[in-house]
C-alpha cells in the first residue's frame, strides 16, 4: 500500500507545477507588466500578463531550452535557460529569453515586433515581485508613454 501511495504522489508531482510571478518593463517607455506564469514540471509554462498604465493583456507560453547537468546531479535550477513568446491585444508579439540565477530568481530580456526592448523577472515570491515592480517603476518614471510614441501599433482593442 505504501508503494502505491508513493507512485500516486510521484504522478501528482510530475503532472502539476506551480505559479510564479512575472514582472517586466519596457526599457525605453513608462510601461510595466505584471502577471503570472503557470509552470509544469516538464519545463513549460502558460504566461498571462497585463501592462500598466496601458492596460494591454498578453498571453503565451514559455519553455526550457537548456538544463545543465548540475540540475540533475544536485537539484539546482541555476543555469537553466529558456524562451518565451507572448501575444498582446494591441498586436505586439514579444519574444524573450531567460536564465535562472536560482530557483527563485529568473532574469530575462525580450524584444517586441515593434523593436522595443523589455527586461523581465520571474519569481515564486510575491514579495520579490513587489520589490522588482517598485525598482522598475522608479527606473522608467521619466520615460515617455509607450502609446504616445511615434511607433506604429494597432488599436488597444484589437485581438491578436
Structure explained in plain terms:
This protein is of the alpha+beta class and 160 residues long. It has a single domain (15-140), classed as Lipocalin, CATH 2.40.128. It has helices at 2-15, 69-74, 126-140, and strands at residues 18-26, 32-39, 44-52, 57-66, 81-88, 93-102, 105-112, 117-123. Strands 1-2-3-4-5-6-7-8 form an eight-stranded antiparallel β-barrel. The N and C termini lie far apart (51 Å). The model is unreliable at 2-16 and 150-160 (pLDDT under 50).
Characterize this entry briefly.
With 160 residues, this protein is an alpha+beta fold.
Helicity range: 10-25%
Termini separation (Å)?
51 Å
The CATH architecture category equals Beta Barrel
- Structural class determined from secondary elements: alpha+beta
**pLDDT below 50 for ≥5 consecutive residues: which ranges?**
2-16, 150-160
- The CATH class assignment is Mainly Beta
How many distinct domains? 1
Mean pLDDT comes to: 84
Topology diagram in text:
Blueprint: H1 2-15, E1 18-26, E2 32-39, E3 44-52, E4 57-66, H2 69-74, E5 81-88, E6 93-102, E7 105-112, E8 117-123, H3 126-140
Antiparallel strand pairs: 1-2, 1-8, 2-3, 3-4, 4-5, 5-6, 6-7, 7-8
Fill in the keyword field for this structure:
8-stranded antiparallel β-barrel; Lipocalin; disordered C terminus; 3 helices; 8 strands; alpha+beta; 160 residues; disordered N terminus
